Model the fold of this input.
Amino acid sequence: MPRIIHVLLIREGDSWVAQALDVDIAAQGRSVPLAQKAFIQAVNAQLRLDAAHGREPFQGIPPAPEAYWEAFFKHARALEQTVVEGEDVVPAYMIRAIADEGALTA
Done:
């Protein structure tokens, strides 16, 4: 069954952060595409680690802090749902949204 991961893309200074909401995994890059690429690499690394230790994917990783959820639902504009292409162990879909830099403090 495909796993859906909600991801908030938020600008922080000169960088973009891709923060998963369902599991507290994040990555950053100098642009949205670079942040997304780094995020997919981080997710793949976590999934490989989980598989190597005989764990379910993302087992024991809590959701992101509430401030990110609030920014996602109150301040972000939705982007397309993306089929994630990558290594052999990546989730099937990533639902993305993008918010302004001040969304976490608003």
User: Anything to note?
Assistant: The helical segments are 32-52, 66-75. Residues 4-104 form one domain. The chain has one domain: 4-104.
